[in-house]
Design goal:
The protein is mainly α and about 140 residues long. It has one domain. It is about 60% helix and about 10% strand. It has 6 helices and 2 strands, in the order αααααββα.
Length: about 140
């Protein structure tokens, strides 16, 4: 195993173990993620409207929070784009991802928080590298 890969593998070992747990206990992990998101968002306008503090299970969530299309949710997005905060997420929303508009002719704007950048986008990239190097430990991906 090349030295740089050994170093990166050592750094990522804890994350690889977490990913292995996710694969073994997917339902429990999803329940924890939902509980964490509900806890964080319970005092937002959306969280107060749908009483996130009272929701304890995915079933309760699905019974309480309606499934809506983008147009029904758009007024929240527009307010956030105008600078209002604590609407659907407690931390500041400064960025928006733009969809390709495949489900309609118009693109959609998706709020992006600092947490979602770290917990989804950045972590996903690091996880992809960690899993690749676990699968191919002799890879020379970092050797130029």
């Amino acid at each position: 195993m090349p030295l740089i890969n050994s170093l990166i593998h050592w750094i990522n070992l804890k994350r690889i173990n977490q990913i292995d747990l996710f694969k073994r206990y997917p339902q429990e992990v999803q329940d924890e993620v939902l509980a964490d998101l509900l806890l964080k968002a319970k005092n937002t306008e959306f969280g107060l409207k749908y009483k996130f503090e009272q929701i304890e299970t995915a079933k309760q969530f699905s019974e309480t929070v309606p499934v809506v299309d983008y147009d029904a949710f758009k007024h929240y997005i527009e307010r956030i784009m105008q600078g209002q905060q604590n609407i659907i997420w407690p931390s500041e929303i400064k960025w928006f991802a733009k969809s390709s508009g495949t489900t309609s002719d118009k693109s959609k704007f998706i709020p992006v928080s600092r947490e979602s950048l770290e917990d989804c986008h950045f972590k996903g990239g690091r996880d992809a590298i960690a899993l690749y190097l676990k699968q191919y430990p002799d890879s020379e991906i970092f050797n130029g």
